[in-house]
Each structure stands twice: as structure tokens, then as C-alpha cells.
Design brief:
It is found in: Nucleus inner membrane. By secondary structure, the protein is an all-alpha fold. Helices cover 74% and strands 3% of the residues. It has one domain. The protein has a two-stranded antiparallel sheet. The C terminus is likely disordered.
């Protein structure tokens, strides 16, 4: 009982931290670039050109700092996902291994968001300035971001959000049900090992579809796109498994309609 009183609050604290970080990430990647205005991107007439920016020490320093923050996050996220590190964390934290990983990832992402240095005077790759683009492009981006985040939340629920956050592992352990992954089929386990980021396409939409792509946003979008792409290793077996699962779900959804037709 004492053991459970420690495990459950620890897992809940990790979950709350991750959930709050996710909300902040929505603000950082969507609300900030879509609603930031002059404060976020600066006066268009005061911006430097690309050549001048790449010779400006302040711009290069900010880019180097942002790059270091991204590498810190990517390094933490990848290193702690290795089997060696998982085994080491499990040795000292037991069933809280996933919760520890989630909490550390949330803290690393918090550092990226809190200490990120925007470059309002830097160049932009594209920008909607003239009518009607200045009205319709931000609106279109806003709609696409809403759709992308709704899809992301839906996919997380399908992939068992409680298990992704480490809550289900603690719940099963306290009730003596064993490890949740042990109940999954070998094909499902194989898929999870290859598909580290199930919301890759939707995140790419959020990262790139913005009315103004500043130089620091370009760095963020490019490096995270590269990381998301390298983290995937789906093959024909995985795609076949996904196709079978989709067909089963569609069949289950169509059953009540078949019954009503009869």
C-alpha cells in the first residue's frame, strides 16, 4: 500500500507536467506565430536581408542558441529512448520508467520554449503582407492548425494516451495486472518500435504552415522535420498490420448499420 501511495502521485505529477507542456507547445507552435503580429515578427520594413543577417553577430548568436536548445531536446528524447537507458531507469525507478522519460522530455521541451530566442529583425522565407493574402492566409493557416491538433489528439487517444504518458503502467502494476505491453501482439510491439512519433504528418503541418516563416521558425521546422523523418522505420509488415487493423475497425463500425438494414 505504501508503495502504491508513492507510485501513483509520481505518475500523476509526470502526467500533469506533460499535459501542461503540451498545452504550452500548442501556444508556442500555433498561437504564437499565428497571432503574434508585430511583437513576434517585428516591423517588415526594418528586417535585414539574408546576406546581412548571416553576417550579423547577434543573429548568428541567437540561431546558435536556438540550435543548442533543439539539440538538447533531440539528444534527451533519443538517448533516453535507447534500450540501455530504459534498462538503467527501470533498474532504479521500476514501473515509473515511462513516467520518468515523459517528465524529462517535458522538461527539455519546456527549456526550448522558455529560452527560445526569436529574431524579429531577421529575414523571412515567406510572408503574407498584401491583400487579400494578409487576410486569407492567416485564416487558412489557423483552420489547418486546428484540424492538425484535433487529429493529433485523436491519434494519441487511439494509441492509448494513458500508456504513452506512463499512467497505465503504474495502474496495472498497483492492481497486479502486469505490464500492459505484455498483452499486446508481437506485430503491435513491432509497429510501436518502428513508429516512435505517430503524429508526424500533423506536426509537420503545424511547423510549416504559417503565414510568416521567420529564420528562427525555419530552423525549428527544419530540424524537427529531419528528426521526425529519421525516427520512422515503417516497412511493408507494419503497413500491412495497420491496414488489417483499419479494416477491423471499419468492420466494427459498420456492424450496427448492417443490423438496422436487416
Amino acid at each position: 500500500m505504501t508503495h502504491a501511495l508513492f507510485l501513483v502521485p509520481a505518475a500523476l505529477a509526470s502526467f500533469i507536467l506533460a499535459f501542461g507542456t503540451g498545452v504550452e507547445f500548442v501556444r508556442f507552435t500555433s498561437l504564437r506565430p499565428l497571432l503574434g503580429g508585430i511583437e513576434e515578427f517585428g516591423d517588415p520594413d526594418a528586417r535585414q536581408g539574408w546576406l546581412a543577417a548571416l553576417q550579423d553577430q547577434s543573429v548568428l548568436t541567437s540561431l546558435a542558441w536556438d540550435l543548442a536548445l533543439l539539440l538538447l531536446f533531440v539528444g534527451q528524447h533519443s538517448f533516453m529512448a535507447t534500450e540501455t537507458m530504459k534498462a538503467w531507469i527501470s533498474r532504479y525507478f521500476g514501473v515509473l520508467q515511462r513516467s520518468v522519460y515523459v517528465a524529462c522530455t517535458a522538461l527539455a521541451l519546456q527549456m526550448v520554449m522558455r529560452y527560445w530566442e526569436s529574431i524579429p529583425r531577421g529575414p523571412v522565407l515567406w510572408e503574407a503582407r498584401a491583400e487579400p493574402w494578409v487576410t486569407w492566409v492567416p485564416l487558412l493557416c489557423f483552420v489547418l492548425h486546428i484540424i492538425s491538433w484535433l487529429l493529433i489528439f485523436s491519434i494519441l487517444l487511439v494509441f492509448d494516451y494513458a500508456e504513452l504518458m506512463g499512467l497505465k503502467q503504474v495502474y496495472y502494476h498497483v492492481l497486479g495486472l502486469g505490464e500492459p505491453l505484455a498483452l499486446k501482439s508481437p506485430r503491435a510491439l513491432r509497429l510501436f518500435s518502428h513508429l516512435r512519433h505517430p503524429v508526424c504528418v500533423e506536426l509537420l503541418m503545424v511547423l510549416w504552415v504559417v503565414p510568416t516563416l521567420s529564420i528562427d521558425r525555419l530552423l525549428l521546422a527544419f530540424l524537427l522535420t529531419l528528426y521526425l523523418g529519421l525516427a520512422h522505420g515503417l516497412d511493408q509488415q507494419d503497413l500491412g498490420y495497420l491496414r488489417v487493423q483499419l479494416q477491423r475497425k471499419l468492420h466494427l463500425l459498420s456492424r450496427p448499420q448492417d443490423g438496422e438494414a436487416e
